[in-house]
Amino acid sequence: MSGGLPADHFVDRLLAAGFDFFVGVPCSLVKTLLAELERRGLYLGETREDAALGVAAGAYLAGGTPVVIMQNSGLGVSLNALGSLHVLYRIPALLLVTWRGYQGEDAPEHLVMGEVLPRLLEVFGVPFRAPLPEALEADVDWAAACIRETRRPVALVVRPGIFE
Amino acid sequence: MTLTDALALLTPAIPDGAVCIHANGHIGRAGCAARDRDECFYMIGSMGLASSIGLGVALVQPHRRVLVLDGDGNLLMNLGALATIAAARPPNLLHVCFDNGAHASTGGQPTVSDRVPLDEVARAAGYRFVGRVETRAALAAEAPAFLAREGPAFLLVRIAPGPPGPPAPRIPHAAPEAMIVRLRRALGVPSVSEVPSDSEGGR
Question: Which chain B residue shows the shortest CA-CA distance from A45?
Answer without folding.
Answer: B84
